[in-house]
Design a protein that fits this description.
By secondary structure, this protein is mostly helical. The chain is built from 13 helices and no strands.
Length: 329
């Protein structure tokens, strides 16, 4: 009997909520169902509780369904992005393979290799994919900040997944994603702050993941030159990221929202950013010192080996005979 009452009220209430945006509807429905129960002489405290639970579940279930739908759409977007990235990779790879067969000059070969590394960004595939994903979120108007956080985080990590640590690539990829969001923020001004807050926090979280990955990269054997390059990249990563954001500040809706977020909402994330950069710089310093010490030890070892060899080859008897020969003369 309890389950029947609960299910009946829940189904009726769902239909009411779907067709109405009235916040006061839930209170009126409670009064209505309690009156119906009173007419049936069934208005007990237990049944009142059942009405309360059924009404809350009915209203919540509509939003829950929207979340499930969005989650499924996001998963489909991710799969589609992966598929398109694979297509782009295959097209780029085959094109460069064909060109490398006909290019003989070393200068052109080096230029071709550089183009191969930068092609994805120059085509702005990342920008267009980000924008389409953000539009999908804005059109549903549900959980904008959280969804934009997930998308920007995913996009940045995915774009740099197979690249070696490089500050310029991180900043360039982050800026493409941010520009896509800024353009939409001007069109969807009611959601500008939620959109940009989600995107900036997502980009920062993506950089955190890249910095954590850098720690693991430092565990493997790297050359002195590679360590120096990483150290130079880290020195200005934080300031360059903030400078990149500031260059996108302007007087339109997106610029004002971005400035407000930068001044008021990112303190904790920037503190974490500074800490991770500092930790990685310390690891790089330790790695460099170890590397340089190992080089010094190797040099000393070689010199000792040379001395030992010279000592072993030194013939005392032969030297004595030579000296005696000189005295005789």
């Amino acid at each position: 009997m309890k389950n029947i009452l609960f299910n009946e009220i829940q189904e009726k209430a769902k239909k009411e909520f779907i067709n109405s945006n009235d916040d006061g509807l839930i209170a009126r429905l409670y009064t209505k169902y309690c009156e119906e129960l009173e007419n049936l002489e069934a208005l007990t405290n237990e049944n009142k509780n059942i009405v309360l639970k059924a009404l809350l579940r009915a209203k919540m279930s509509i939003k829950e369904q929207e979340i499930y739908t969005l989650t499924n759409e996001l998963e489909m977007i991710r799969k589609e992005i992966k598929s398109k990235e694979l297509e782009l990779y295959n097209i780029t790879k085959s094109s460069f393979n064909e060109l490398s067969k006909v290019v003989q000059n070393d200068i052109q070969k080096e230029y071709l290799e550089e183009l191969m590394l930068n092609e994805a960004n120059s085509l702005q595939i990342l920008y267009e994919t980000s924008q389409n994903a953000f539009i999908n979120v804005l059109e549903t108007n549900v959980m904008i900040e959280e969804r934009c956080f997930l998308i920007s985080n995913f996009m940045l990590i995915n774009a740099l997944e197979y690249a070696k640590f490089n500050k310029d690539k991180i900043i360039n990829a982050a800026e493409l994603i941010l520009k896509a969001a800024l353009e939409l923020a001007n069109e969807w001004q009611s959601y500008a702050e939620e959109l940009l807050t989600g995107v900036l926090n997502g980009l920062l979280e993506g950089i955190f993941a890249i910095l954590e990955r850098l720690k693991k990269d430092l565990e493997v054997s790297l050359s002195d030159n590679e360590l120096d390059n990483m150290k130079l990249s880290l020195l200005s990563l934080e300031s360059d990221f903030i400078a990149m954001i500031k260059t996108n500040l302007n007087n339109d809706a997106s610029g004002k929202a971005l400035e407000n977020i930068l001044n008021n909402k990112l303190d904790n994330n920037f503190a974490k950013f500074a800490r991770l950069v500092r930790e990685n710089k310390q690891l790089l310093n330790i790695k460099l010192i170890k590397f340089q010490n190992s080089e010094l030890n190797e040099k000393i070892k070689k010199e000792l080996n040379t001395l030992e060899k010279a000592y072993n080859e030194f013939d005392v008897k032969k030297l004595a005979i030579n000296i005696l020969e000189k005295f005789k003369k």
